[in-house]
């Protein structure tokens, strides 16, 4: 499918009831009620706090694909795109009929409902489920493992979100979407099933480059068997990590949502229409590795008092995502005051040699939090509207 065709499908099928960053069971359950007459929906387990974990099954094909999202509760972009995808599947025009004919998908939209509700990475026992693949100490981990063993997937889609700090390489390009074909041994051997995952990632990268050139990255493939993706890869199931990242001024992750949707459709169409052998894996290695080259804001050329001397420095500000009254608020916090020549800001402000004050009329310091600063008597907003 061509890019414009997929973009058109997204506009028609974007789920209007899911938006911004805070997505919980309360948001998806009404949607599941609307879908239950069309697809198979089950409660496949319960979380630590006894919240339901849902499993959705759709399609009739022999190629089985397992997809799970919000293993980390505060990573919701891929969940929004899953419901956009489901809406597309159910369209009577049958734009994705070829996928459902060739494939059967099993989708867990929110694996960590307690973390989703609290807007935390970890579950209610303060455990990172993506480090629990071997111990299986948590009920959510055991649910995923049970589904994996009973469904017996041919492909796994491990769906995540990433922070705004990542760049695609060491250049001034945000890693808006990132991927990984996880390692399956300490030597990071390029095995046959890793090649299959790499080939599919290459297909997604090809189409994304037409939309966000040089803004796709891959993660370091250092092996950790406690990670779910590494475990499933180790068991010879081609596994793909998806990371929904930052696009300029898109803190609600709505542009990234569309890019993830495009990634879903392009990869599922490719799997549906081809026998994926891994022979075309080489393009994976053309994707730059993620680096930590960004801050949300950098104030350049600020006068900073240092003992009795004055010098020019840069000020790095990172947004803290906080759940306040059922909505995610972005609170700017100063993390560094130093020369940041090798780093970039998604927003940059030139202090032009003036001092930077807080709203208390004191020079700003590390850990200062506020939505404004004062430079040369001008009140400067730190939040993008």
Question: How would you describe the overall organization of this protein?
Answer:
- It comes from Flavivirga aquimarina.
- This is M14 family metallopeptidase.
- It holds the Pfam family Peptidase_M14.
- InterPro entries: Peptidase_M14 (IPR000834).
- This protein has 385 residues and is α/β, with parallel strands linked by helices.
- It is built from 9 helices and 17 strands.
- The chain has an 8-stranded mixed sheet, with helices on both faces. A 4-stranded mixed sheet has the order 13-12-11-14, with no helix packed on it. A 3-stranded antiparallel sheet has the order 15-16-17, with no helix packed on it.
- Strand 7, helix 7 (192-209) and strand 8 (216-218) form a beta-alpha-beta unit.
Q: How many structural units, i.e. domains? A: 2
Distance between the termini: 35 Å
CATH superfamily name of the largest domain? Zn peptidases
Q: Provide the succession of SSEs.
A: HHEEEHHEHHEEEHEHEHEEEEEEEE
Structural class: alpha/beta
Helix content: 25-40%
Keywords: Hydrolase, Metalloprotease, Protease, Zinc
Cofactor: Zn(2+)
Family: Belongs to the peptidase M14 family.
Protein name: M14 family metallopeptidase
Write the layout of secondary structure elements.
Layout: H1 3-13, H2 25-35, E1 40-46, E2 52-59, E3 63-68, H3 77-89, H4 97-102, E4 103-108, H5 113-118, H6 139-151, E5 155-161, E6 166-168, E7 177-180, H7 192-209, E8 216-218, H8 228-234, E9 239-244, H9 254-273, E10 290-292, E11 294-306, E12 309-324, E13 327-338, E14 344-350, E15 356-357, E16 372-375, E17 378-381
Parallel strand pairs: 3-4, 3-5, 5-9, 7-8, 11-14
Antiparallel strand pairs: 1-2, 2-4, 6-10, 7-9, 11-12, 12-13, 15-16, 16-17
């Amino acid at each position: 499918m061509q890019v414009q065709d997929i973009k058109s499908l997204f506009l028609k099928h974007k789920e209007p009831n899911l938006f911004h960053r805070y997505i919980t069971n309360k948001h998806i359950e009404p949607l599941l009620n609307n879908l239950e007459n069309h697809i198979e929906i089950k409660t496949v387990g319960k979380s630590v706090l006894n919240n339901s974990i849902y499993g959705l099954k759709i399609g009739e094909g022999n190629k089985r694909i397992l997809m799970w999202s919000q293993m980390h509760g505060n990573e919701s972009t891929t969940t929004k795109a899953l419901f956009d995808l489901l809406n597309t599947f159910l369209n009577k025009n049958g734009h994705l009929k070829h996928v459902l004919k060739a494939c059967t998908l099993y989708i867990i939209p929110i694996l960590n409902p307690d973390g989703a509700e609290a807007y935390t990475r970890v579950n209610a026992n303060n455990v990172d489920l993506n480090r629990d693949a071997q111990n299986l100490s948590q009920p959510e981990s055991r649910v995923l493992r049970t589904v994996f063993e009973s469904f017996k997937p041919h492909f796994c889609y491990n769906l995540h979100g990433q922070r705004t700090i990542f760049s695609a390489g060491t250049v001034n390009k945000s890693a808006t979407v990132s991927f990984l074909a996880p390692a399956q041994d300490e030597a990071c051997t390029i095995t046959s099933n890793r090649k299959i995952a790499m080939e599919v990632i290459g297909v997604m990268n090809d189409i994304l480059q037409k939309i966000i050139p040089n803004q796709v990255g891959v993660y370091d493939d250092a092996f950790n068997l406690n990670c779910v993706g590494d475990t499933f890869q180790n068991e010879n199931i081609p596994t793909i990590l998806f990371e929904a990242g930052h696009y300029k001024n898109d803190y609600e992750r709505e542009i990234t949502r569309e890019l993830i949707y495009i990634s879903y459709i392009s990869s599922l169409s490719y799997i549906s229409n081809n026998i994926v052998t891994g022979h075309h894996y080489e393009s994976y290695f053309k994707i730059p590795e993620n680096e930590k080259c960004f801050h949300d804001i950098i104030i350049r050329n600020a006068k900073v008092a240092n003992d009795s001397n004055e010098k020019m420095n840069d000020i790095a500000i990172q947004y803290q995502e906080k759940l306040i009254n059922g909505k995610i608020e972005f609170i700017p916090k100063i993390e560094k005051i130093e020369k940041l020549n090798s780093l970039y800001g998604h927003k940059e402000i030139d202090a032009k040699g003036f001092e930077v004050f807080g709203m208390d009329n004191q020079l700003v310091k590390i850990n200062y939090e506020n939505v404004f600063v004062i430079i040369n008597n001008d009140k400067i907003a730190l939040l993008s509207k």
